[in-house]
Write a structure and sequence with these properties.
The protein is mostly helical. It has six helices and two strands. The chain has one domain (24-193). It has a two-stranded antiparallel sheet. α1 (25-47) packs across α2 and α1 (25-47) runs antiparallel to α6 (164-192).
């Protein structure tokens, strides 16, 4: 018996190993809807940046309040004996008290957080300037950039100390820009609806 051997040549095309498929229609609609909501919220934040910052602090206080109650309940009804159980309860009570203070005085808390941010920016700016001046191992351009970035950080910290309201406005504007960019990206993803997946999956 004679066996005939057949050699089949297969040419491999990299572009054939991956197929471009559209995302489901419902997913694209959800993406577009969420993107529109994000853009609307970004315009609202731009209109009321300081109020938005205070609102974010208030919402965080509510979240902390809920988490504190959960920790207290878990600690009380936990079957685990020992000090760790009451440690969880104690920490939950502390978080609960802090959250109540923040909800009672959201404006004062926001100002306090802004001052902490200003202090952090001030020391970060000093560190960057010292690094840019003293580090001879990096290029002159990198050193100059570090000094400029440090000077900007110190300037922002002084601005927040001088006017906490202006600092709240600045934080709100940065939040609005972030929302706007993310909203546009989500809408683009929903409109194009393209996703790449290997053939055969």
């Amino acid at each position: 018996m004679i066996f005939n051997a057949y050699i089949i040549k297969v040419r491999f095309h990299p572009q054939m190993s991956i197929s471009e498929t559209k995302s489901p229609g419902w997913l694209r609609a959800v993406q577009i809807g969420l993107g529109i909501i994000a853009i609307i919220l970004s315009f609202y934040v731009l209109a009321f940046p300081a109020f938005t910052f205070i609102s974010v602090v208030y919402v965080l206080a509510i979240v902390l309040f809920v988490l504190a109650i959960e920790r207290i309940i878990v600690g009380i009804f936990s079957p685990t004996p020992g000090k760790s159980r009451w440690g969880v309860v104690g920490l939950g009570v502390i978080v609960l008290i802090v959250s109540l203070i923040v909800m009672a005085y959201p404006v004062g808390t926001s100002v306090f957080l802004l001052f902490l941010l200003a202090v952090a920016l001030f020391f970060d700016g000093i560190a960057r300037i010292v690094h840019g001046i003293g580090d001879k191992s990096i290029s002159k351009g990198a050193r100059a950039f570090s000094v400029v970035a440090g000077a900007i950080a110190i300037g922002l910290s002084i601005m927040i100390f001088a006017s906490p309201l202006l600092g709240a406005v600045l934080v709100g504007i940065l939040l609005a820009i972030s929302l706007l960019i993310n909203g546009i990206q989500i809408i683009v993803a929903g409109v194009t609806g393209r996703r790449v997946s290997p053939i055969g999956r």
